[in-house]
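The passage that follows is intended for readers who have already worked through the single-chain material. We present the inputs for a multi-component assembly, then the predicted structure in tokenized form, and finally a short commentary. You are encouraged to pause after the input and sketch how you expect the pieces to fit together before reading on.
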Amino acid sequence: MSHRGATGSHEHDGDGAGIMTSMPHDFLTKAFHTLGINAPMEHGHYAVGNVFMSTDSNERQQAQKRFEATVHDAGLTVAGWRRAPVFSECLGPVSAGGEPWVMQPLVVCSGAWVGDVEMHRMLFLIKKRIRPVVGYLCSLDTKTLVYKGLFCPWQLFEYYADLKDYTYSTHFALVHSRFSTNTFPSWERAQPFSLCAHNGEINTLRGNKNWMRAREGLLKSDLFEDDLQSVFPIIDESGSDSAAFNNVLELLTASQAFSLPEALMVMVPEAWQNDAHMSAAKRSFYEWASCIMEPWDGPALFAFSDGRYCGAQLDRNGLRPCRYYITRDAQMICASEVGVVNVAPEKVVQRGRLIPGRMLLVDTQLGIVVDDELMKENIAGMRPFSQWIEQQQIRLEHFESTSDDILIDDIPLSADCRMAAFGYSAEQLDMILGPMALHGKEPLGSMGNDAVLACLDTRVVRLPYEYMRQLFAQVTNPPIDPIREKLIMSLRCHVGPERNLLQISEHQAHRLSLDSPLLTLPQLAAIRRMAATKYPSWTTKTIDITFDAALGIDGYVAALDRACAESTEAVEDGCRVIVLSDRLVDDKRAAVSALLALGAVHHHLVAQRQRARVALMVETGEARETHHFCVLLGYGADAICPYMAYEVLAKLHRENVLQDHSIGELVARFQHAVDDGVRKVMSKMGISTLQSYKGAQIFEALGVAAGVVDRCFRGTASRIGGTDMRGFAMAALVRHHRAYGHHVLGDEGEYAWRAGGQHHVNMPQTISSLQDAVRRQNADAWRQYTDAAERAMEQSTLRGRLELHGGQAIDVSEVEPWTAIVRRFCTGAMSYGSISMEAHAALGVAMNRLGGKSNSGEGGEDAGRSQPLANGDCARSAIKQVASGRFGVTSRYLADADELQIKMAQGAKPGEGGELLGTKVSAAIARTRHTTPGVTLVSPPPHHDIYSIEDLKQLIFDLKSANPRARVSVKLVSESGVGVVAAGVAKALADHILVAGHDGGTGAARWTGIKYAGLPWELGLAETHQTLVLNALRGRVVLQADGQLKTARDVAVAALLGAEEFGFATAPLVALGCVYLRRCHQNSCAVGVATQDPVLRSKFAGLPEHVVHFFQYLAEDLRVLMAALGFRTVAEMVGRSEHLRERAGATPVGIDLSALLRPAHSMRPGAATRFERAQDHGIKQRMDARLVPQLLQALQTGKRMDVSTDVHNTDRAVGTLLSYHVSCTKGAEGLAEGSVRLRLRGSAGQSLGAFLAPGIAIDLEGDANDYVGKGLSGGRLAVYPQRASSDVDNNVIDLDGAATSNNVIVGNVCLFGATSGEAFICGLAAERFAVRNSGALAVVEGVGDHGCEYMTGGRVVVLGNVGRNFAAGMSGGIAYVLASNLHKMCNVESVGLVAVQGGEEARWLRRTVERHAELTGSIKARNVIERFDELLPKFTKVYPHEYRRVLEAEAEKEKETETQAEIILPPALADTVTSLVDIEDAMVDDSQLAKRVQRLDKLRGFAKYRRRTDAYRPAHARTKDWQEISARQTKAQLQVQASRCIDCGIPFCQSSSDGCPLGNVVPKWNDLVFRDRWHDAFLRLMATNNFPEFTGRVCPAPCEGACVAGISEKPVAIKAIEAAIIDHAWEMGWMQPRPPPLRTGRSVAVVGSGPAGLAAAEQLNSAGHLVTVYEREDRIGGLLIYGIPNMKLDKQLVARRVDKMRDEGIVFVTGAHIGATGRPAADLLQSADAVLLATGATWPRDLAIPGRQLEGIHYAMDFLTTSTKRLLDGQPGALSAEGCRVVVIGGGDTGNDCIGTAVRQGARSVVNFELMPKPPTERAVDNPWPQYPRTFRIDYGHEEVVAHWGNDPRQYCISTKRFIGSSSSGGDSNSGRVTGIETVRVEWTKGDSGWTMQEVAGSEEVFEADLVFLAMGFLGPENAVLDELCVERMPRSNVKTAEGSYATSVPRVFAAGDCRRGQSLVVWAINEGRQAAREVDQMLQRECGQQMAVGFSNLPVSGGVLCLEHFEPILEAEVEVKV
Ligand code: SF4
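Having made your guess, compare it with the prediction:
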């Protein structure tokens, strides 16, 4: 069994081994007597044990004295000591370093024999009392003796000479070998313990410990009486999980309350909750047991003995193998494997295995094997448990109210302040809460979580939940499948007071039983009424966890103290239920976080030993996401009533947002979604029952201060410190203040980037710059990319807080070349299926060109990919992944890899399986994955061949056999403890370890998993590197980091923290075109990356060279960094973390990253700190290796190979290495059948025939262990009992077809992931047979639990009974089962049970059974054949629904193809399926359109429907008036347009860099319009934009240029939707004046009433300040009034808006020439608290050429102003174009407005000069998306000229040389009025220094002109007011402010808009006004002190987000906070 254990860095350093035997009386008597210790030693009347003592003799003597005194105090005597003789020389260095002095005390009665019970009572007290003082006591008992130590198993007998003494005899031996992966190995942690040994892991340990501590307050024992107090704590905190289990087991048995089997039944119960077939008595026992203790949950096989009983108990999942033989001479040999002891086959009478949840028990006194069923029924029958449950247990339905009413107030949701107070966001409603209530499931997300860590977020207020990261199982303890294996999971819990654990009584069952931890409002109300109704003793105390907000932080902390004190009082008063409630939140009272309150109270009660006396419930408005509930439960909540979430649903229902279901249904679905979510989170940690999960604290705190952890989350890992209680208090106060001061429901970009919101690693700038850089090899763009990416990292990640430093810089030329560096790079595991073949292959080609590695992902890979392409490229993935789904994992696939990567966990969703929707499973993908097209593929969360580190070690062994050339990598995900896991993985002989971060991308996962599982790789990598170095294991493995690596800096940090290779996933994908749509799971990726839709795939524009360029740039950057640090190679950098330090001031208060930065090389000097030598996989010693020469010869000669040999359980993976050679030589085809035959005899080791290739057959006569035929790839296996076995004849069949034999011949997980081939098993297979079989044929004679689970193909014939959960998740293939229990055991969720048809199907079945008989000699098979016709009706065909549907559809299609040449779709269907349909084109009437709108396809709308903007009125008609030129579309038309919005993960349209400067939340309002929720759309729009009626008309819509749909189609007509929303709002009367509720008393003067001034005024007024706007013109509006003609913006709209603002309290003063001829600016500054200059850039650019002084030459703005005044005032103006030949010089909007105005005024002709060339019709190469497209466009003015004169007015490349005039006196062309313009054509050429212009000789031309308008832009602001205020200016004359600020050089004077920014768009001006207002507000708030004195503004940043920019500094300064 040594192959199952671990060896450390030295081959003599094991992880621990030991043995428990019965007391070797003869031996000990002799041994003690030899020492002269002659105390009487009557067998069973003395105790001996091994004690690990100090090697220091003084200390040891002291300890011995203390030991003797303790023994004496207990009433016994130490008769003498004996040193156990040991052989220390056999120890390895680590083991020897901690070697103890092993002493054996002989403990006897002081007087007469006291009896067995009393003796054991005293021994128990001694063991508990001496624990801390004398050393470690392995055991001290009268019946058993334990020897153990830090050994490999073989050293146990070398070390302890006693064990080799021939007089040492025992009637049992329990041997354990440890493979440590959750704690460091030590002498003490070796096993067995005093009662048991444990193979597995207790996942619920923290909870079990806490609950035991809590229970101590209730414990009483008649046996121990007052002595009981002296044994507390029951659990030794320093011990391992197994030791803790042993502690409790010892208590239960020593107290005599439980027998050993009873105690085990209580602690490790069967999965009784969902087992309908369990007897009522046994079920009642378990139900009673669940009232007294939660299960100790996790994968576990316990072997135990108390000297009389020996046995083993398997956990409910059965995740550990346990096989046994019973022999004729009454021996039982039970072990993890068969074959560990040689037994002659004829001696074996039974071969069995332990079934999940069952106990194997031998009573050595009676000499019998106790039947599990009988024994448990006996125990269950010993007391009337059923009656106890019935009479005592309280169930909610006993008193629950039937009403499901939710009482809600009248306040609309949008005005409900509590939502903001509890931190709700609009995004959560849309993305999480709404979908959960609608669909009963948590929604899916994709592409991982790249948002800023909560502890680093200085912008947005975060809840404490967001700091808690879910831990998950990897390697040592597998996750559970919460869907397919739900039957072993349960949310049922008993709450309320427990009773004395040690006194079995009916009162223990008197608890409240809840089926779900989520309470509805009526349920909570009913619980509160319990005392008043049926249960008078069940009093409830509600503890208010709100506090007076005016008390600030102190109030928060005091509320926590009060809650703890009140909880103690409540318990002392006899309360049975405590409800922590934040119901009283209102404008005065803020709430303590329910999580912190719960954690504090729970731990307070645990510490007081009161927790077990009361149920602790939470009534909170805070919890609404699955994660929130999980955290609350994990920290001890018994039940949660999320009243606010329910009320929100009710209000959403009332407001017709969720109107399709009743409120009751919505609540039920929401609860269902939460329950499922909780199950999923539990399952990730391998926990089956909520009872065990509750309080188990399976979280790591990321960024929480030690004080908070100690108080609320005691025992939780928090490695980097962080936010303290003051911080959390402040956050709560800020939320509360904001909610009640200025209610805005946040929308902060939590799930996806949005402008102004939470920082994300991926954002518009990084994506667009990267694509530009790699496509055009644009170095500038690369620099922009790295700058943006590094900024993003600084803001969002831990590594961003670090900087590189130190070292002696060298010249970069000395650094290794980039071509060497890129060999260390690889791309992430993205499967073909999740991404398109185009993208997948491009990655492969790129990485092969570079010499790096691409990763196949888990979808398999066609062999054709390995063939070179015509140009010499190769698209093969060097890394082949082996994941839980095992799709396409064949011998050929494995043989063709350079690296085989075992995916233990995935960064974005550790602990979860993947899912590929049927829509993405195309024929090609199905072929690659060996599945059926169209059938959804689900990967199970665990690898079914890895349930322990031993299993992982075996898989590594298998893979190394399947390809000895490839290195085997294990992919882990960062979490606390990953270092220890990695050490185990290194000991398991992995060659390579990948530590992935939490933030990696993924195709699809539930948001809870994406956001809250896993930790940053920085933590995991540092921990792993340090641990490996400390254990001298680092040199054996290559270490890789992966997770959102973007830049050379990231790579440098990873290298310095210990990585030597680097994985990139999203960055190369972005280089290929990914734009982070986050809809990978929907098959609708618009850029063809993550889709299988042929139309969308055709849009893929990526090339391998893009990826190559990316890595080249990156490697070159890295070289520069390396040179600066003085490193010549990456290898030199690895682990040199002394070159990293925290950036000064970068890390938020409390965060300490120093633990990460401890250089590992200083921890264990001399140990390897990077990969040095390859692991020794012992390939040459394998059986296969001996056979390979024969095989190679056979391959050469073509002769058959036939070998017969004995086989042992140490011969593992037999046939796998041979298959490798076959696959390498013959490819996937393999050999012809019968080419190679191995005839084996004996007990085969694990993985017999794994990945067996075609042409190889293995016949095994004997039995085999786990994983027979794993990944079977075309070979054939036959396993049958040895002919001499006594049990063979048992294998017959009864009339019902049930197996009568329990002859288990093969172990667990056989045929897992088989893809083809055959297996014939003559006997029973254990658990999980043929899981994920996708193509093999198997015949077996009975299977254990979970047979055929997840099967997707192939055929399985079962001639016998099946275990539970048969066919769960089976989506393909067929099973034929002859079993009497199938209907009982089959999971029919995805399969149907149908009769077997006659005909071909029956004939096939018969032939198959005949073949089975022939190959295995099966008696049962012969039996079946003999009675085939009789038995045929008893066969059941297990037929997956989806598979059947697809097969039938295919058959139907074939038929149709034969009969029909062409299918003509009915017209009604045609427009829904044809791509690129313009729905309006087929529109008939409104009702039809409405119907079609309901059918709109929002997933592919961008490609299906046409872009439609607001249409202009006909040009001829519109130029006759001054009305607006365009007309709005109908609502239905706009809904169609809105359906084109992709709702991208990164909405580029929102980005201020290229999209909307305001950060308008375009996708959100598009979505709301699509859903016909116009009012909500209006609210969303107004949150970011003050004046959408202006921007919706005049904005040039950069958002549309950045629209993602525009990459491959036309962009969405965003502007049209925006204009329609606001117009509709005005029509509906939603735009009403809303004066601010409070006035601050501060005043602001705004100079200028253009868009910036107006926006600032409105914002400042809304913040409560008194605002006066000064305008020099006669009307308010500035540019909006006089700069834009009426046909573009109706002036009534401006006036309407100004009126509304006036009604809201803003004062407007017109004709106010501030600082010029009017009021002095200084006067203004004196009278107002702040002055905001928004005077615009009105100083027009002139054209200083000859003739400029002529009459008729005007600035464009003068013309437009005059024109508008004329229109508004009805007065004829002096300046008119009527009858004139007009020339407009300059383009742009102003030029076009001049054209349109001139046309309307009746110009004779209009010409427009443009100096620049005519723009291209499509984007130029240097104008890539998402930049504003500089393309040729026909604006309204141009169109009107065309309509009037037939030609476009624009002349390009034309330079104006001179104005020609006609003097009134005649003759002088330079005076008088302009008559013409002399021009010349120019040519533009681009050189290195930019564009140059040259005049074209001979191109001179004169244009006649009567009027010339200069529309060449503006130079800057006018000076008067600036001069007067002495405001500093920039060289280009605009106002100078600091970057990102609006404050000028003059205190209290601010500037916004064009006067600051320079000439720009209206939308930019509005944004300037908004942001300047925010800064002014911040200043005023700080000064006025009416707000919380934190100096933040309630005005939002761009994107409408409230931001905390000034929060942190105030905290640092510890400013007193007052409301
Ligand atoms: S304001 Fe302009 S850029 Fe912003 S969404 Fe509207 S049209 Fe687009």
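Commentary: The pocket of iron/sulfur cluster is lined by residues 1556, 1558, 1560, 1562, 1591, 1595, 1597-1599, 1614-1615, 1618, 1963 (CB under 6 Å). The longest strand covers residues 1873-1887. How closely did your sketch match?
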